[in-house]
Amino acid sequence: MTVYSGRPGRHRLRPTLRLRLTLLNGVLLVGAGAILVMLAWLLVGDALRPADQLRDGTTVELADGRSLDARDWQEQVVDAASQELLAKGLVALLAISVVGVAGAYAVAGRALRPLHQVTSMAQRLSEETLDQRIRYSGADDEVAELAGTFDAMLDRLGESFEAQKRFVANASHELRTPLAVMRTEIDVTLADDEADVAEFRRMATVVRDASERANGLVDALLVLARSEAQSGRRLVRKVPTDMSTAATNALSAVRGEADRLKLTVTTSLKPAPVVGDPSLLDRLAGNLIENAIRYNHLHGKVWARTGSDAAAAWLVVGNTGFEVDQADVPGLFEPFRRGGRERTGARGSGLGLSIVRAVCDAHGGTVTAAAQPGGGLEVTVTLPAGHTTPVVAATASVRPSA
């Protein structure tokens, strides 16, 4: 028996897996041995019957000079042989059982040793020890599969912790920058005894721009967290909507910036009905089109297409710009990654494509991106068609308590 501690200060006894395997092996071994001894006992009793073939009244003369009826002598021989077989068989069964149980206990312990390593490592795991692995080198069996699966899980956890650290560090840096700008401007202006109204207006303008940038970053972080929280789960809100409408609204919002850069905007916005969260899908389309404007150049091009078929609906947004290496494209969907050089002079948060990816995941869709030969990027979002996705109304009823 082994003591396991489920809660601090409370203990209970229960058989370990090693003990249960040993007991099971012992029961099977003793049972099989007992059956063999019983079969041998029965066979000896049936085989030692030579007198049955003799005539009645036949006698047997023993070595001590006595004469016995053949059948009486046969019964004595059978009884003696059976008793001796039973006694020696039970002794052999006991010896074999002891050796077998001890061997089973040792073999089970050796086979379950990697499980103890998994348990021990799980107890030692912390953020500082995620680099440790079992690295099982035994036979290619179920235990090896379990150890390999545990190591793979630790690899994924390590990557997740590292990604989280980078995310927190980048978010802190992004938020610290506008706050530092605001504090510097305020301190410098207040330290200037000759500052006039114009200087205070200039300071207020800088502080406002910095606060807008910080507010935009916070909003983007909230949208990203909301999208990732619903990724792989049922969306809280699923209503019919159209990605062409979201693209139209996003294009209208950036029309002024597109005109300032003298961009050529080409659209082919056919119906693309889907079922999902309209606010998230609006942000998806808005991020793609804002990126197409932001990472463009003077007299560049932007194109947007929507459409659908029986299985899916899609939104394609592309733009010209400086060249992007296709090998760098997957990294653009990571938080706080900005591709190329920014063209408009406005800095983004680096969360645009991360939000697009998270929204696609939440809606059960996919997103792909391809670097354009002459420079720029084309992003394609594909979501399940509206008629293939059930509508879920996020409603809650409040009932009076009984």
Please tell me what the overall shape is. Answer: elongated
Percent strand equals: 15-25%
The side-by-side strand order for the widest beta sheet comes to 6-8-9-11-10
Structural class: alpha+beta
Number of strands: 11
Please state the average pLDDT score: 78
The largest sheet is: 5 strands, mixed
| SSE arrangement, N to C | EEHEEHHHHEHHEEHEEHEE
Low-confidence stretches: 1-11, 340-346, 393-402
Give the helix level as a range of percent. Answer: 40-55%
In DSSP terms (H or I, runs of 4 or more residues), the helix count works out at 9
Distance between the termini: 50 Å
Keywords: Kinase, Membrane, Phosphoprotein, Transferase, Transmembrane, Transmembrane helix, Two-component regulatory system
Enzyme class: transferase
Organism: Phytohabitans aurantiacus
Pfam family, one: HisKA
Question: Could you explain the architecture of this structure?
Answer:
Pfam families: HAMP, HATPase_c, HisKA. The chain is of the alpha+beta class and 402 residues long. The chain has helices at 17-47, 70-111, 113-124, 142-191, 197-229, 243-253, 255-260, 278-294, 352-362, and strands at residues 2-7, 10-14, 59-61, 67-69, 239-242, 264-269, 273-276, 301-308, 312-319, 366-371, 377-384. The chain has 9 helices and 11 strands. The strands form 4 sheets. It has a 5-stranded mixed β-sheet, covered by helices on one side. The protein has a two-stranded antiparallel sheet with strand order 1-2. The longest helix has 50 residues, at 142-191. The protein starts with a strand and ends in an 18-residue tail after the last strand. The model is unreliable at 1-11, 340-346 and 393-402 (pLDDT under 50).
